[in-house]
């Protein structure tokens, strides 16, 4: 669903707005500045999601003034200026950022599943849970699966320390080693899934499906969740097919980034 109107930030439909709030809370920034309807997020450069400007309400200040202020914030923190534009963001902002040299990237779909329509499937493998925070082994597995630099681990751990929601970190272990991982966090009756990753040598064996199924059932049984959401790069066809098999039947909205090159 794509909505484009000329306001500073057109409110999303009720469910989409609720899901957007869940996703923001499930992946917190280290620092945030509220500025005339915009939310400036900072997290040492770890992920665009937590290092971008988000439009969360209407504002009154001139657009050029607001963009300049955001640029000054990111410049002060040694980060590139980046704006996250929902499908409800104004064409005026998109055009202004484009004129200033901001390049589009990272189109992402926000998916939702209703447990009333699609009850969570049972996990086909044993799934281990760590509650509240990941284990050192879980984090090491993520670093290995995604081939991340060693300094990225401390940044991710700092973000997770800010997480104030009930959360679990799931893992499937095969032959003594963690082979697949995922995270779930619950807010307002919806569980947000992210940090999904598997050993590149063990793909398409159902391990991620098992991790996510276990998290969905945990959220429903332990926290009364009525649905689940996630955000996935729109071009990631294998991941989207996995999520469709789980029951993610609704795309609520999309977003993309504009980054100053």
What is the CATH topology descriptor of the largest domain?
Answer: Aminopeptidase
Global morphology: globular
| Beta strand % | 25-35%
Poorly predicted ranges: 1-9
Which sequence of SSEs, written as H and E, runs from N to C? HEEEHEHEEHHEEEHEHE
Residue share in helix: 25-40%
- CATH architectural category of the largest domain: 3-Layer(aba) Sandwich
Task: Provide a quick synopsis of the model.
The protein is α+β, with helices and mostly antiparallel strands.
Task: Report on the architecture of this protein.
There is one protein chain. The protein has an eleven-stranded mixed β-sheet, sandwiched between helices. Helix 2 (63-76) links the parallel strand 3 and strand 4. With 261 residues, the chain is an alpha+beta fold. It is globular. It is 33% helix and 31% strand. The chain folds into two domains: 14-108, no CATH class; 114-254, Gcn5-related N-acetyltransferase (GNAT) (Aminopeptidase, 3-Layer(aba) Sandwich).
Topology:
Blueprint lengths: L13 H13 L4 E5 L2 E5 L10 E3 L7 H14 L5 E5 L4 H9 L2 E13 L13 E4 L4 H11 L3 H12 L5 E8 L2 E11 L2 E9 L8 H17 L3 E7 L3 H10 L3 E11 L1
Parallel strand pairs: 3-4, 9-10
Antiparallel strand pairs: 1-2, 2-3, 4-11, 5-10, 5-11, 6-7, 7-8, 8-9
């Amino acid at each position: 669903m794509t909505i484009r109107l000329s306001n500073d930030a057109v409110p999303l439909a009720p469910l989409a707005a609720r899901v957007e709030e869940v996703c923001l809370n499930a992946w917190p920034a280290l620092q945030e500045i509220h500025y005339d309807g915009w939310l400036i997020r900072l997290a040492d450069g770890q992920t665009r999601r937590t290092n971008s400007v988000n439009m969360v309400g209407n504002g009154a200040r001139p657009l050029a003034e607001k963009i300049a202020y955001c640029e000054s914030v990111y410049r002060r923190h040694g980060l590139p200026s980046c704006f996250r534009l929902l499908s409800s963001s104004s064409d005026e902002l998109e055009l202004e950022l484009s004129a200033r040299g901001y390049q589009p990237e990272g189109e992402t779909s926000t998916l939702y599943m209703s447990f009333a329509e699609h009850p969570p499937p049972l996990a086909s493998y044993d799934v281990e849970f760590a509650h509240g925070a990941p284990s050192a082994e879980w984090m090491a597995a993520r670093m290995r699966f995604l081939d991340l630099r060693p300094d990225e681990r401390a940044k991710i751990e700092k973000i997770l320390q800010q997480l104030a929601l009930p959360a679990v970190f799931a893992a499937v272990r095969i032959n003594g080693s963690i082979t697949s991982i995922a995270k779930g966090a619950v807010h307002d009756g919806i569980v947000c899934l992210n940090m999904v990753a598997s050993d590149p040598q063990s793909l398409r064996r159902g391990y991620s499906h098992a991790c996510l199924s276990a998290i969905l059932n945990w959220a429903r049984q332990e926290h009364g969740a009525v649905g689940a959401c996630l955000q996935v790069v729109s071009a990631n066809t294998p991941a989207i097919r996995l999520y469709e098999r789980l029951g993610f039947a609704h795309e609520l909205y999309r977003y993309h980034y504009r980054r100053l090159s």
